[in-house]
Amino acid sequence: MSTVLEFDAQTSVALDRAIDALSGRRIAVLTGAGVSTDSGIPDYRGKGSRTRTPMTAQQFLSSEAARRRYWVGSHLGWRAFASADPNAGHDALAALEHAGIATGVVTQNVDGLHLRAGSRRVVELHGTMRRVICTHCGQVFDRRDLAHRVEADNPWITTPDAVELGPDGDVLPASSDGFVVPACSVCDGVLKPDVVFFGEYIPAVKFQEAQQLLAASDALLIAGSSLVVNSGIRLLERARRRRLPVVVVNRGETRADRAATVKIDAGTSEILSALTTALSR
Q: What are the contacts of 144-148 at 24+ separation with CB within 8 A?
């Protein structure tokens, strides 16, 4: 089976094998940070990514100083993070769903780019930066509204022209001195973005949604994830038990390489675009 885009010989062979493995099947998609790198959002583990020590949930909840540092960086980064646009890979997966081929997307990303690209069924395993929740009363706030509060309480804060953006929309602030941390306007409780911090578990209901999406499918496409996070491995294992074809698209090694029906070591945007073109014919 031939493809429209031009790739090197090894990639072309792998791509054709992937098309053959996925053709005529309903495909569940699992994505990681590598899908969003072409939108200007770096990943944690890709080539050239810097070493990061993300704040744990325990640190955030137990220390006011830690929350102050987090919120300065999170606010500055979110302004840049929120301006990122979906790339060709996001668009391709949305088109694959609209064509009735993909059953939906399970994503480890918190950037919301799949939804902005037009994907309708998206399971955000690690939450979303679009919302902020109160850890005491459970009240939910729109991140845009909270940003206005942050800037009103901290008029000195500015967004740099260029920030070193993190995968979860944060930056490392030069200083957090004097920063007024936003509190819940309902109960004055501690606010946190509606994302799964390091040290927290993925909500059971979210993983159930991911399992249901996979159960409605007869192939699994993994894109832009090294599968270091256990939630992805758990989905892979469920696909293996059912002996579903598994196609992995990622630059560099992943924990799924040995289990994959086909592994394509290439960028996600161009490969997902090629797969969508071929499978939609």
A: 146/182, 146/191, 147/75, 147/78, 147/79
